[in-house]
Amino acid sequence: MARVNYNVVTHGISGKIGDLLQFRQRNGKTIVAKIAARSGRVTPDQQQVREKFRLAAIYAGSALKNPAIRELYETRATGGQSAYNLAIRDYFNAPVINAVDIGSYTGEIGSLITVMATDDTRLVDVRLQVFDSTGSLVEAGSATRVGEQDSWIYTATVFHHSPSGGKVLVEVQDTPGNITVQEYLL
After folding, report:
1. Which of 11, 47, 105, 128 has its CA 20 to 30 A from that of 26?
2. Residue 149 has what DSSP assignment?
């Protein structure tokens, strides 16, 4: 890749030159790219991607109007990435449940379930539902974050007579509202 530190002809230029080149400015640098060829036809898959990107742009614009969320994205944006770009990326990436420790859950009130979950920006909620062996809901609620780590603790509030054969449904949600759900057998 060629790099030019200062060129009086292209410095600060943006726009198209014919149907060949497009110039853009990014972090004080001029980027030159070939103009992509378009067939004029839009496939259903392309339309779906365009719609998701449109929704991501709406989310990013509204998120940056909220000072707290704007600060969140601005502090995480690094090297040429803007808060707006990070918000769009966050919209496209769902959170990940890395591990769930149900070994400490005995069915007794106060027993614990630990969830390790991550997101590229921030998790806003980790919810659990505990079911018995017949599929009936025993209890549900939000886990509590442990410090600034990716660890969340759920404390049982209802006595579960026979947890064996039951299941735990874990649901994590990030800032844009993406939700990841996983089921674990007791």
Report:
1. 47
2. S
Predicted pLDDT of residue 52: 95
DSSP reduced 3-state for 47: helix
pLDDT per residue as tens digits for the range 13-36: 777 777 778 888 777 777 788 887
Q: Between 67-76 and 83-92, two packed helices, what is the crossing angle to 10 degrees?
A: 90
83 lies in some domain: yes
Name, in order, each residue with C-beta under 8 angstroms of 124's C-beta and a sequence gap of 6 or more. 173, 174, 175
Count of domains for the chain: 3
- Residue 112's domain comprises 96-185
**What global pTM score does this model have?**
0.76
The position carrying tokens 């449940």 is 97
Residue 85 CA neighbour count, 13 Å, CB half: 8
